[in-house]
Amino acid sequence: MNPRSENEIHAPGIVPLKRRSALSIVCPLALAAAAGTLYMLTLCGGVGGKTDSAKWQFLGKVLGVPHTTGYPLYVLLNHAFSLLPFGTLAWRINFMSAFFAVLALVVLQRILRNLLDSEILALGGALVLAVAPMFWTFAVVAGVYSLNAFFICLVIYILFKWSDAKRRGYFYAACLAYALSLGNHVTMITLFPAFVVFALVKDGRTVLSLRTLLMSLAFIIIAALLYVLPFISTAIPSSYLEHRIRTPGDLRGLITVQGFRDFLFYGGVEGLVESHVPLYLSEVLAQFSLPGLILGVVGFVVLAMRSGVKALFLAVYLFANLFMALNYYAGQVAYQFIPSYVVLAILIGLFAGAPRAIMPESGRAVRGFFAALCLLAFVALAASGAAGNLKQIGKLRSQTAANEMLADDVVDALPPNGVILAHSYGDSMIMMYKMLGDERGREKRWRVLHDTTWKIPDDSHAAANGPPYDLPVIDGLLRGDNIDWPPLTVEDRYPAGHELFFFEPDRPLIDGAGFVSEPVDLPGDGHGKNIYGGQKYRIFRIAGKGGVMFKDNNAGH
Questions:
Q1: For 105-128, what is the mean pLDDT?
Q2: N or C: which end of the chain has fewer CB within 10 A?
Q3: What is the C-alpha separation between 263 and 325, in angstroms, rounded?
Q4: Which residues contact 71 (CB under 8 A, 6 or more apart)?
């Protein structure tokens, strides 16, 4: 019998891959079909969804510049998907998330196949990740996280292939994939320590050779070229620029998370121990359950027994990612955990190698029996995860459908050339989607003023002592002042006076600020006027200003 490679964890009772070549095609295709069907059946078709979903649904179309860190590769791919000849714009960008989520799962299955030497058992970890709540959520709404997961899996897959085959081309391919991944999400920087340690341990001579260093420099240049896009978008200009990138200093501020620096190391050690670590543990349990975590621990032990350097790679990457994520602002930290979920899914999938590691001399029938138990464990985990997540996905789909109906009704109700003052970030992004991405909305020639532009910050003295509006800004709009429209670059062509519309559910708050308002009624979604997906939305046309309160508050500012 030929000696086995140190990198193999042969699954019990499974014929080696070279005799099962048909499965190398059938299993990935079956996985892609199953995951693709699941995601298409649950894909959100409306506007918004999570975090910045509404923004991503129009930003690629206009090739705009988003918040830090710029995401140029995602913006380019987003633009390509926006050109698809079917579906609404929001649906196309949501579909992009599903597309890369399926690719990530297929590549993850290939990683496990090479470690387990079994096409069938390699499906386990991929199935568990496919229905993990956060991964599934970002597979059906617009966001950068599915593409991020795909790059994580791709870099790991190619690096492990290089480790097994010792072909320099694989290492160069891993370097290129890693360089490109930084154009999507800079949290990929947390993969760098693990990448370097793994490469040096496996073949330091190749890694440190002049040829490899020159190739790495070329890949860095290729990745850097992606960040020419924000300069181009600013110069055109795009109709949406959260940052105007004209100098290298502007770019440095964009990619070094200048806008989020206050969120880093938020709360110090006390916040880390009392808030972030418990949050992470609860999130992990929500994704994989306690039995899943136990399987992951066993999987790590199995990998360490068979290939210590690969186990070291995953451990270093997991630690580096969590170091960054756990020191981030609690309100944003949950989304930074997604890379760690990919690593945990790989480790959970490696549980299938435990029977072989524990009972290396057992008979074929015994190993086959335990292989079947492993498969049942994976199916049970996936089924329980899917059942628990379907309700939340259903709510998300209902809300995005309600958002779409709301946005369409607003388009029908408001006249052209108006100014919409959105009360919240989410509302402003939905309206900007209609203004910049939707054909009917663009015909209205609206301008949407970001809530952060005309509202006073919640923690300011002025907000604590009066209505939370920057009244001089609104007064200027009523007079017809020509103002800037950040992040919009739309020219203000109507300086004679702006027709203002508050997108605000609380009329007493508006009246208390001294505005003369007239309600603009919306049809609603069948449950009552102005009701959309269980939420009440009101629009008020500001006919003018009046009352002593307005003047007093204005003077106070």
A1: 94
A2: N
A3: 11
A4: 144, 183, 184, 185
Structure tokens at 479: 């007079």
- pLDDT at res. 490: 75
Closest CA to 131 of 41, 25, 51: 41
Q: How confident is the model at residue 459 (pLDDT cuts 50, 70, 90)?
A: low
| Closest-CA residue to 423 (of 522, 334, 536) | 536
Highest mean pLDDT among 378-387, 459-468, 471-480: 378-387
> Please, are residues 263 and 332 in contact by the beta-carbon 8 Å criterion?
yes
Residue 184 has pLDDT above 80, yes or no: yes
pTM of the model: 0.89
Average pLDDT score over the chain: 84
Q: How far apart are CA 94 and CA 142, in angstroms?
A: 4
* Whole-angstrom distance, CA of residue 524 vs CA of residue 528: 6
DSSP string, 1-43: -PPPPTT--PPTT---GGG-TTHHHHHHHHHHHHHHHHHHHH-
Residues 138, 338 contacting (CB under 8 angstroms):
yes
pLDDT score recorded for residue 332: 57
Cα distance between residue 339 and residue 323, in whole Å: 12
Q: Phi/psi of residue 535, each to 5°? A: -110, 145
For the residues of 390-459, what is the DSSP string, one character each? HHHHHHHHHHHHHHHHHHHHHHHHSPTT-EEEESSHHHHHHHHIIIII-HHHHHTT-EEE-HHHHB--TT
Query: Which residues sit opposite 542 in a β-bridge?
Result: 500, 517
With CA atoms as reference, report the closest residue to 518 among 500, 495, 531.
500
User: Residues 264-273: what's their mean pLDDT?
Assistant: 64
Q: What percentage of the chain has pLDDT greater than the value 90? A: 45
Strands 535-536, 500-503: pairing is unpaired
Question: What is the pLDDT, as a whole number, of residue 206?
Answer: 84
Which residue type occupies 155?
A: V
In this structure, what DSSP letter does residue 527 have?
Answer: S
Name the burial class of residue 248, with classes exposed (0-12), middle (13-18) and buried (19+) by CB atoms within 10 angstroms of its CB.
exposed
The mean pLDDT value for 127-149 works out to 95
According to the per-residue pLDDT averaged within each range, which of 214-228, 451-465, 489-503, 523-537 is highest? 214-228
Calculate ∠ Cα 330-332-338, nearest 5°.
110
Neighbours of 524 (CB within 10 A): 17
Q: How far is CA 432 from the centre of its chain?
A: 20
| Closest to 517 (Cα-Cα) out of 406, 410, 421, 412 | 421
Q: Are strands 419-422 and 447-449 parallel, antiparallel or unpaired?
A: parallel
Total residue count of the chain as it appears in this document:
557
Strand 500-503 relative to strand 539-545: parallel, antiparallel, unpaired? antiparallel
In this structure, what token pair is assigned to residue 30?
Answer: 């079956």
Indicate the SS3 state at residue 67.
coil
